Each structure stands twice: as C-alpha cells, then as structure tokens.
Amino acid sequence: MGEVRDLAEKAWRGELAETQVHPGMALVALEEIAPGLAFMSGFGNVAVLSTDEGLVFVDTSSAFHASKLFAEVRRWSRARVHTAVYTHGHVDHVFGLVPFEEEARSKGWPSTCVVAHRACPERFDRYRLTNGYNGVINQRQFGFARPYFPSDFRYPDRVLDDAGATISVGGVAVELHHDRGETDDHLWAWIPSQRAIYTGDLFIWAAPNCGNPQKAQRYPREWSRALGKMRDLGAAVLMPGHGPPILGEERVREALSETIELLDTIVEQTLRLMNEGATLDDVLAGVSVPERLLARPWLRPSYDDPTFVVRNLWRLYGGWYDGNPARLKPPRERELGVEIAAMAGGASALAERAEKLGADGRLALACQLVEHAFAADPADTRVRAVRAALYRARANAETSLMAKGIYGAAVRESESQSEQKPG
After folding, report:
1. CATH classification of the domain holding 88
2. What is the mean pLDDT of the chain?
C-alpha cells in the first residue's frame, strides 16, 4: 500500500486528526490506484488517466503544486497531456498545466486541449474584474501577509453546455456532467471503464463548502442532486477535489449518502422556516444539524460552517433583506457605535462589558458589543486589546477555516498600528 492509499484508509477509519484530513491539507504525492489511473493528492487534487493517445487530466491542481505535479506525473508516465478538464474555475484547480505546456512547446507536441463548462471563462473574466477584492479575501481567509490573487488564466479551448458531454481519448471514455454546487460552472467526471468518479469540489472530506461567507452564490439543492447521481452509478472509486480517495463501492455509497443527508436537512429546514415567514435570525436559531453527521471523518465542519449554508440559502431564495426593518437602511457603523458607547458610559466601559460577557462564554454577544466600542473609538488601546482577545478566543472556539480566518483577521487588525476602521 502506497502513501495515498494508506492515507485514504486511515482517513476513512477516523484515525487521523482533523488537521490531517482537511481541504487545506495535502499529501502532495501521486499513486496509481487502478491500472492506467493515477491520483495526485494536492491542493487541489488531480486524476490522471493513461490512454493510447496521451494523458487525460481531470483538474490540474494549483500553482503551489504545479512543479510537484509535473515531477510526479513524469515519474509515472512520459506521455503528453492530451486533454485536461477543469471541474470548475477556482484557482486551486486550474494552474497546474504550466510546466506541461512548456514541455509541449519545447518538444513540438500539440497543445493540450482544455475542456470546461461554458461559465468557466465568465468566471475568469469576473476574477479579473474583482482581482483586488479576491486578494483581500485570500489575505483574510488564509492569513496571507498581503493581498494576492492571480490574474493570468489559462482559458479553456472547448466549453460544454449544461448537458455535459462524453469525451473519448485513445478509446477511453470520460463522461462529463454539469451540476451547479460550489460553483455555477462545475463539472464532475465518470470513467465507466474504471468505475471511478472524480467529484471535483462536490466532495472535499469536509462538510460541503456551500456557505462560504466571502464568495459568490452557491447551490446546496443542486449539489445534493449531483451527489445522488454519483451515488446511483455504483462507483468503486471516488476521487475528490480535496482529500484522499475513497476506495470500495460500499464506502463510496455511504460517504455520498451521508453528505446528501446533511445538505438535504439544512435545505429542508431552512425553506420550511422561510415559508412560514421566519426572519433570518429565527431561521439561524431554528435549523439544527445532526451531530452524528458532523462527527463523520468526511463531514467535519473544518472548512465551511452549516450556519453559513443557511445564510447562503437565504441569499439564494430570499435576497439580502433579513427581516429586521432597522437593517434595511441602517446607520453607519460608527454612528451606531458612538451612540451605544455613549449610553454605556464610553467606549472603554462598553469594551469592559464585552470582556465580562466573553469571560462568561457569551462570545457572540461580546464580539457584537466590542465592535460597537471599536467603531466608536478605534484609537482606544483598551478597546483594541479587548477586541483582539475576544476574537482570538472566538477563533480558537471555531472549527471552520472560514470563521477562523475572519476572526483571526480581526485580531490582526486590532493589534496593528492603524487606527482607522471603515464605518
């Protein structure tokens, strides 16, 4: 058993800590998991299929692992990369081709044909339009030293519509299906000859990333339906967008079924409460997720958070108004903070109250109060110290990378020398 299979077995049995099976973690190694089919573990993963006409990639990984992907693939096969499929246009899936295309040019090989959904080029165009914003998100979410987001994308040569397509390379068929889920341009692959699915980010060894608070709209209902289609294929191999493969038909079915169950219960509860006229505040308090699902090694809320999925569903079906009329056209944050601080006896007094609430374990309320204090007087060193301490405690108490990243950014902001906060 190689490194990838060993990781897959330990992960399935729940023998690895959460930090070792996480969408942000990667073994960064390639292993053949069936004759002619290799799996590259990285950020993100890649399926490599060997055919008589050349290699087929499903996903291409990120710029971080492009060199390692090249070295690992070339250790396994010297064939040219005939076709590469982008399951979607997220940057951790579309930047690994660079060394292969450089090699092709140097050897006079035909260029790789890149296949994607028709919405993928539109995504790349949007990324160019909002490059600075996405850089700020990456800095906040991943703790980068400075904002960064790429702007030079390898656009696809062939785009598919919603019906998908079957591509055939060297007599090997790869069925490409389109379903909205984490993105609107998502494809997933079924390789009948291998009884293998490549899910892209529709499965990532974590609770589905369909509520990310800093990203564009995601689609939980359609996501669940896509997983149902995969489950009904009877696959013996599941290759995810992140994390190790799942090997064995029963295991694949179990993992997909429980992910469907998790998504369906969130969707059903949220829509029921919305249809009853509940506000967003009431919906967030009323939706519950079975702990037995969140405890599964492949469904831990280590990247996204189920409450964020509820908010995303509200945005999808109900717009941005949350049911509180005061927030329809609210005051500036600084104006509200100054008024609340004045009633409390000053920003420092308000921060002290927040500190006490934090000590009592009421971190959500404490953070709300300290935000008012910070808006009222961002230069107050006592306020900044309390704010940093509260958000550090909040980050430590969270499981999802999304929440940890945002709260960690608030800690860094509080401890920085800047005294300015947008109001």
Report:
1. 3.60.15.30
2. 95
Same domain, 116 and 227: yes
335-342: which pairs have CB atoms within 8 A and are 24 or more residues apart? 335/423, 336/372, 336/375, 337/371, 337/372, 337/373, 337/374, 337/375, 337/376, 337/423, 338/375, 338/376, 340/369, 340/372, 340/376, 341/372, 341/373, 341/376, 341/377, 342/376
Q: Are 306 and 403 in contact (CB under 8 A)?
A: no
Domain range for 344: 331-415
Residue 20: what pLDDT?
Answer: 64
What pLDDT, on the 0 to 100 scale, is given for residue 17?
A: 76
- The pair of three-digit structure tokens given for residue 208, joined into one six-digit string: 């589905």
pLDDT on residue 21: 67
CA contacts within 13 A on the Cβ side of 299: 19
Return the structure tokens found at 283: 């919906």
- CATH code of the domain covering residue 399: 1.25.40.880
Do 248 and 358 lie in one domain? The reply is: no
Strands across the sheet containing 172-178? 165-169, 172-178, 187-191, 196-200, 237-240, 246-247
CA distances from 120 to 9, 81, 159 (A): 34, 21, 8
Examine the domain organization and report whether 163 and 51 are in the same domain: yes
Statement to judge: residues 251 and 341 lie in one domain: no
Tell me the C-alpha distance between 112 and 339, whole Å: 61
Give the number of C-alpha atoms closer than 13 A to the C-alpha of residue 249, restricted to the C-beta side.
6
Phi, psi at 398, each rounded to 5°: -85, 160
pLDDT at 378: 96
Domain match, 247 and 336 both = no
Residue-wise pLDDT tens digits, 9-51: 999 998 887 666 667 677 889 999 999 999 999 999 999 999 9
Return the residue matching tokens 């992960």.
11
Mean pLDDT of 81-85: 98
